[in-house]
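User: Small ask, check this?
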Amino acid sequence: MLARVFPRKTKMSPTGQDVYFSPPPLFPKYDEVRISVTFTWDIKRGIWLKKQWEVVCNEVKIGGPAFEDPGAAFAPGEYLKRGAVITSRGCPNHCRHCLVPEREGKLRELPIVVGNKIMDNNLFACSRTHIDRVFDMLKKQGPVVFSGGLDATRLNDYIIERLRGVSLECLYLAFDTESAERSLIKAVTGLRRGVTRRRSSIACYVLIGWEGNGTETIEKAEQRLIRAWEIGTMPYAMLYQPNSLEKKKYSLEWKKFQRKWIRPAIIRTRMKEIVPRKSTK
């Protein structure tokens, strides 16, 4: 029997009686234990968990993205909950704030498995054949969520046409730097033409706290978040985290600021007070 162990529980964590987020229970009976660590700042806890599980099992392995694992074939329900799938690894872009190219390498297309939550880092950079196969699978699924923070520059007319054929719940775009604004406007304009008209259907990860955006301040970060709203998306603030063993510590002010920008109800209320609906042009 196999036990899967994780340092922390998230919305995407798998479920089941053989999934653990803690040291072993009394008298476990497993032939092998695999500890999967996603974030580098969880490595210490992952190593601690490994020592705890080694007391009750001879075969205990530790790995995952935090250990620079490039990822092999995707097994549904193994390290992500059922419904969440990955159809490609890696990314051809070389964004300074992103760890994917360094960790996963060049873009690789994987065998497609059935699911309705697409977690790929850069699905739209894949070949048209692969993209078609993904959409052919999604036509039978619903509601569909693209949660990877997609590259707006690759959202072309062909992909928009394919999106019309799926039951789309939400698509997440990325707004990491000010230079991405033009592409974001174009992508949102295209999506509004026959794909979706609800703001919540087009979400946007807005990177905050990264010094690559200049001398970052809360005021500058809020301007980008407001701009993402004006363009027609539901913005979600993402605090930048470097690839380090220690999680970057932000002040209480930054943490409170981010919390205001990850809850749609609060965001809508704030936007009614801050800025009226504006054109994306």
